[in-house]
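Hi R.,

Here are the chain sequences for the assembly we discussed:
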Amino acid sequence: MHNKSIAQLSASLRGGEFSSTELVRHYLERIKNLDERLNCFVTVAGDQALQAAEMADQRLREGNAGPLTGIPIAHKDIFCTSGVKTSCGSRMLDNFVSPYDATVVERLQNAGAVMLGKTNMDEFAMGSSNETSYYGPVHNPWDTDRVPGGSSGGSAAAVASRLCSGATGTDTGGSIRQPAALCGITGMKPTYGRVSRYGMIAFASSLDQGGPLTRSAEDAAHLLQAMVGFDHRDSTSADEPVPDYSATLDEDLRGLRIGLPKEYFDEGLDSGVGDAVMAAVDEYRKMGAEVVDTTLPNTGLAVPTYYVVAPAECSSNLSRFDGARFGYRCDDPDSLEDMYVRSRGEGFGPEVKRRILIGTYALSAGYYDAYYLKAQQTRHLISDDFKQAFDKVDVIMGPTSPTTAFAIGERSNDPVTMYLSDIYTIAVNLAGLPGISVPTDLVGGKPAGLQIIGNYFQEAKLLNVAHRLQQVTDWHLAVPEGF
Amino acid sequence: MSLDRLEVEKIAHLARMQVSGAELDAVAEDLSDILDLVAQMDAVDTAGVAPMAHPLHMAQRLREDKVTETDQRDHFQAIAPATENGLYLVPKVIG
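And here is the predicted structure of the full complex:
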C-alpha cells in the first residue's frame, strides 16, 4: 500500500480495494516500527487519525469523495492543529495546544485528507539539518548517520521512508526544497502569498511560504490544489485565480526555454551533484526544450542579505513568546523582566537565540541603515536579476543544494558553513518566486535535487516540467533500503 | 565586524532574553562570524536602489471597521500559564 502514489491510493479507496481505516492502520504500524530509527514524528495522532479515516470511509461509501479523501498525510509541526500539540520543534511550545487550526490544516481536512501526526523540524524552522530541534535530530533514511536537511526534515524523511503518502512543509530559505533534495523526494515552495500563512507559526513573514512534500510532481499537484487560494485571515494572501494543477501535467515541453545560471554551477558545487543535474537537463533537451546560458549576477549577495532580513523579521515575530499568555514560563519569576528574560532564555535553543540576537542588533538604534535598509536594497537587486532572466527564459534550472546529505554533527558547530547549504534556494524566497526540487539520479548512492524556478504564480508550469521528467526517468521511484 | 561580551549582553537585554555568562564568548564569536558574512553586502553600491520590503509589492488590504470575531476569551486563556477573572497573571509590576 505504502508504495502507491496519491492518485493510485485514491483509486484503490474508491474501488473498495481497501478502506481508509485499513490504510491509516497500515501507516500507523509503519510509523510504530520504523520511526524509532528516524525520529520523523514529534506527535503521532493515532486516535484522531482513525476517527478521520472513519469519516473518510463514510464519504467514500456515499460517493462524494475527492482526490484526497482518506489519504494519510503528515503536517510539519509548525502548522497549528486544534487538539494536537504544535511544538514548532521548541521547548518554548512543548506544552502548546493551539486553540484553532491553520488554514492549510483546515483545507486539507475539508478535502478529506487524514492527519497521521506532526513532523519534527528545526526549532522555529531555523536550520538546514533538523539538528536544532528540541526533540532531537531526524535521521536520513538513505543513511541514518546523515541529516535529512531542514527545516522540514521530519516531513521529508517521513515521505521518503513512506511513513505517510505526503506531507506539508514550510520554506523560508529552502526549508522544503533542500530536505526534499537530500531525501530524494519532490518538494515545492509556491509563490509568496499563494498558500495562506494563517496558523503557520511565523519565522520571517516576508519570506515564509507553505507547500507540499511528496514522492512525485503528480502527487504534489494534488496536495497543492487543496492548500492554495485566497484567505482573508492572511494579510498578504494573494487573490489570484487558482488553476487546475493536474490538468496541465502532461503538456508538451517542446520549445520550453530553460535558463542555466552560470553562478549556480561554480566551484562550490559538488561535481557529482553537478553531473546529475546536467543529466536531468539533458533529458529536457531530448524532450525538445531549448537550453540557454543565463546569469543571476547578484547570487553571491543572497545569503548575506537573507541573514539580515530573516533574523530581523524573526526577532520581531518571536517577541510574542514572553511567558505571559501561552507557551513556556520559567519557574518562580521574581519580576516581570525576570519572567521575560528567563522564559525566553530557557525556552529557546542556541540557533534561535543567535538569530534573535542578530536581528535585534540589525534593527537597533544606529544600525538600521547599515543592515536592514541595505539588505532591503540588495534584495531588490537579487529580485531584478530574476526579472531580467525571465525575459528570456521560461524556467531556470540548477542544483537544489551544493552537496548530498552531510553527516549529523558535521556542520552543527559552524553556523556560517551551515547557512551556505542554502546558497541556491535562498534567493528564490527573497524574490518571492515559486521553486520545486525533484530527484536527480543518485550520486554515490545518495539523493540529490534538481531545482526548477518559475516566474510568479507559475506553479502549474513547474509541476508540468517536473512531471515530464518523472515520465521519462525513474529517479523519483528510488527508495531507501530498509524502509 | 566583531562583537565582544559586553555588546552581546547589551543586545540580549534589548531582546529580553537571557544569555548566560558561560555562553557569552561562544555567542560573541558566532555573531561576529555571521556579521562578517553579512558584510559582503557592503561590496555593492546600492545608492538610489529602492528598498524592497515585500516580494509582490502589494498594498495592505483594508476591511470595513466592524466586529467580525466572536468572544473566545475563555477558550484562548485555557492554555495560559496563569489567569484570574479573565486576566493574564504576571509577577507584580507596581510595588
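DSSP finds 15 helices and eleven strands in chain A. The domain at 6-255+465-477 of chain A is CATH 3.90.1300.10 (Amidase signature (AS) enzymes).

Let me know if anything looks off.

Best,
T.
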